[in-house]
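hi! just following up on the protien thing from before. the input was this:
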Amino acid sequence: MSIVVLDGSTVREFVEDKEAFNKTMDEKFVELDANKDGVLCRSELRKALESLRLMESEMGMEVSSTPQELNALYDSVFDGFDTDHNNNVDLNEFRSEMKNIMLAIADGLGAAPIQLLLEEGSLLKDAVEFESAKTH
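and the predicted 3d structure came back as:
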């Protein structure tokens, strides 16, 4: 883990560099594609979301949700990725939705720099490393 300082522009510049962003998303996609069939099924995307624990916590506090509520939430997130509704997420759908998510994070961060503790391999850490590489 690393403590980094970033703001929305760090994330936005990373997303707007199509080559760097797509390279990173392609790598993440391959990591998530457990059966290596070139698409993500519900269980592969759900496993990734579960590992992030984004759905079960809010601001570091545990959120009590029933299994049915969590299933509905995971299905809703999957449907956001699966824009052609073929019950799989291909690489282009993954890139597109991750771009939307990262830009929403950039908007949420705003212009004021903040310190964050980030895990190695996280997308925000990738954005910070991208910015750092540009300045060296």
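The first strand starts at residue 2 and ends at 6.
The CA atoms of residues 2 and 118 lie 5 Å apart.
cheers
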